[in-house]
Amino acid sequence: MINATTDTSNLFAPAKASTTAAKTVNEQDRFMTLLVAQMKNQDPLNPMDNAQMTSQLAQISTVSGIDKLNTTLQALSDSMAPNQTLQAASMIGHGVMVPGNGVDLANGLALGGFELTQPVDGAAVSIYNQAGELVRSIDIGPQPAGLGKWQWDGKDGAGTVMPDGSYSFEVNGAQGGTSVAATGLQFGVVSSVTQSAQGVTLDVGRSAGVALSQVKQIL
Predict the structure, then answer these.
(1) Helix/strand/coil (H, E, C) string of the chain?
(2) Which CATH number fits domain 95-218: 2.60.40.4070, 3.20.20.70, 2.50.20.10, 3.40.50.2000?
(3) Model's pTM, two decimal places?
C-alpha cells in the first residue's frame, strides 16, 4: 500500500513560472535602462568602446540564460518524482539494509549488516540487549571494503537461547592493528511508501521516514 501525502506544489507551478518570467523581464528592462542612461551620459571625449559594450550585453545574456537553466532543472526534478515513487513502491514486501544499529531477533534468527571504508583482516559484531549489556560477540573474520552481512542464531555467549525482541549491535574492524571505521546497517522489510514535498520516504521495520537514498541494499 502506498501512502501518498498530498503535494500541493504543482498547484502553484503556473504562478511560479509567471513570476520567474516577469522577474527576468524586469531585470532585463532595468539593465537596458541603465545601459542607455550610461551611453547618453558618457564623456564624448572618452566614449565607451566596443569591448565594454559587448561585455555589458553579455552580462544580460548570462542572467537570462541562468534563469532558463534553473527553470529547466526544476522541470527535470519535478518529472523525476513520480519515477522515484514507482521505484520505491516496488520495494514493498522486500527486505532492505539501511543505516542503523538495531537488530530484531525473531524465531531464533537475526540479520544485520555493515559497511567498511577499507578491507580489514579481522572484524567482530557485538550484540547488546535493551539494558546495554553485552549478549554475544561474533567473530566474522577478514572482510573486504564495502557492504557485508552477518547472522545471529539468537544464543548468548554461553549458548542460552535469548528471547525474541529488539537488540542493538556494533561492528568493529581492524587492519594491521589499526581500527577501521564501520557503519552499522539494520535489516527491515519495507511496509509502505510515502511521497511528500520533502521527497519519497519508506517505513522499514521499526524505522519510519527512511529516505529512499538511504537504502544501501535490497535483499
Answers:
(1) CEEECCCCHHHHHHHHHHHHHHHHHHHHHHHHHHHHHHHHCCCCCCCCCHHHHHHHHHHHHHHHHHHHHHHHHHHHHHHHHHHHHHHHHCCCCCEEEEECCEEEEECCEEEEEEEECCCECEEEEEEECCCCCEEEEEECCCECCEEEEEEECCECCCCCECCCEEEEEEEEEEECCEEECEEEEEEEEEEEEEEECCEEEEEECCEEEEEHHHCCEEC
(2) 2.60.40.4070
(3) 0.61
